[in-house]
Amino acid sequence: MQVRLGDHRRTTHILAQPFIVLADAESLEQEGTYPLPEAQLDRFLFKFEVPFRPAPNSTRWSRRTILKQHVEPTKVMDAARILALRQVLEKVVVADAVRDYAVAW
Q1: Whole-angstrom distance, CA of residue 40 vs CA of residue 37
Q2: Are the CB atoms for 19 and 3 separated by under 8 Å?
Q3: Cα distance between residue 18 and residue 3, in whole Å
Q4: CB–CB of 15/5 below 8 Å?
Q5: 4 by DSSP, 3-state: which?
Q6: CA 94 – CA 87 distance, rounded (Å)
Q7: For residue 17, which of 68, 82, 62 has the smallest C-alpha distance?
Q8: Given pLDDT bands bounded at 50, 70 and 90, which one contains residue 93?
Q9: Using an 8 Å Cβ cutoff, are 41 and 53 in contact?
């Protein structure tokens, strides 16, 4: 499966699989963030909430972000493994009642 991503110049870029798009809730100056309009909610499959972390975690986090300290992420899975797991998931049978519950929740 190829995904085409267009920009304002109508240029098409073919992205290698797998890929993921992340977005964050940008705060409006010091006023915090606002909920998305209903018309935009369907664009996101997951929502991750990051709770406030007490010190020393907050201190370590602030050093990494505010002071721009480089952090090398740990790779837990490669692209081939993700694609292989996708193929397995396509074969999983989900009962209608379970799917209905997940969608309603």
Answers
A1: 6
A2: yes
A3: 10
A4: yes
A5: strand
A6: 15
A7: 82
A8: very high
A9: no
Residue with tokens 């920009």: 7
Q: Which amino acid is at 29?
A: E
What is the spatial distance between Cα 2 and Cα 81, in angstroms, rounded to a whole number? Answer: 18
Rounded to the nearest 5°, which phi and psi values hold at 15?
A: -95, 140
pLDDT digit string, tens, across residues 18-49: 988 777 776 666 566 777 778 877 777 777 77
Record the tokens describing residue 68, joined without a space: 């721009």
Residue 79 in contact with residue 17, Cβ under 8 Å? yes
Q: What's the chain's length in residues? A: 105
Report the C-alpha gap between 80 and 2 in whole angstroms.
Answer: 15
Owner of token pair 């020393």 = 56
Q: Which of 22, 74, 77 is nearest to 50 (CA)?
A: 22
- Angle (CA) 13-19-22 rounded to 5° is 100
